[in-house]
Amino acid sequence: MLTFITILCLVGMLVLPTLMLVFSYPVSHRLALFWSNYITSRSARLFFAILRYYRGFKFLGDSESKKNLPEQFLVISNHQSLIDIVVYLYYFSDRKVRFVAKDTLGSAPMVGKMLRTQGHCLIPRKGHPSVAMRRLQKFGLRAVEEKQIPVIFPEGTRSRDGNLGQFYSAGFRRLVQNARIPVAVCALDGGWRLSKVKDVFKNLNRGAYRVKVLKVYDAPETKDDEKRILEESRELIQSQLDEWRSGI
């Protein structure tokens, strides 16, 4: 019964804003942006409130580690599920967060229109790499100009089992070379348990999603800086995952 109520509440909170976004998208960018911002601000908060109330699911965002963040920064993070997007929208709810994501999300009725309206960076899975690099370049420049917080997942895909994958450098390097801002390394955990539809509601029960800022680097000035930050960020994230999972 609680599963049914949870689904009903989650769907219910999105029906009106989704319909308004779908109808306004073809005719008014201003209205589409309003409803996109509504979804990303209000709905992210309600999402975790509903899960906490009906399933005992906790959002464990470390607030202490956010206190000394600069005005603008780029986020490097591990990636476990689509809910990671909601997690960062909620965790950095006082910022304009924008994601580097696969363009396949652009075909989803609500998510696609929201991502395009807000100016997230949609990277094609197929085609010449130069297309992806051009999009990242434009995204980096726009993020700085509009004081946005770009988020990139260097693994390039979701971890289905929670294990940290290889970090790829090309996307991060192109982005940071055009957005010369500090780099915040963040770790999250809990999403991999929700990656399979059949396991979602079983693992939501009394589960938790953790997220924390681990370290903030000054804006990299050289290619060696970029390489060092990427290598160290993976080590930092792995160490934090180990600590969480060991119960320390």
Helix-strand blueprint:
Blueprint: H1 2-24, H2 29-55, E1 58-61, E2 74-77, H3 83-91, E3 97-102, H4 109-118, E4 121-123, H5 129-145, E5 149-152, H6 170-178, E6 183-189, H7 200-204, E7 208-217, H8 223-246
Parallel strand pairs: 1-7, 2-5, 2-6, 3-4, 3-5
Antiparallel strand pairs: 6-7
Helix pairs in contact: 1-2, 1-4, 2-3, 2-4, 5-6
Q: What is the overall pLDDT average? A: 87
Number of domains: 1
The fraction of residues in strands falls at: 15-25%
Percent range of helical residues:
40-55%
Q: DSSP helix count?
A: 8
Secondary-structure-based class equals alpha/beta
> What Rg do the Cα atoms give?
18 Å
How many beta strands in the DSSP annotation? 7
- Biggest sheet, spatial arrangement of strands: 1-7-6-2-5-3-4
State the order of secondary-structure elements, H for helix, E for strand: HHEEHEHEHEHEHEH
The rough form would be described as globular
Report on the architecture of this protein.
This protein has one domain. The chain has eight helices and seven strands; from the N terminus they run H-H-E-E-H-E-H-E-H-E-H-E-H-E-H. The longest helix is centred in the N-terminal third of the chain and has 27 residues, at 29-55. The protein has 248 residues and is α/β, with parallel strands linked by helices. The chain has helices at 2-24, 29-55, 83-91, 109-118, 129-145, 170-178, 200-204, 223-246; strands at 58-61, 74-77, 97-102, 121-123, 149-152, 183-189, 208-217. The model has no long low-confidence stretch (mean pLDDT 87).
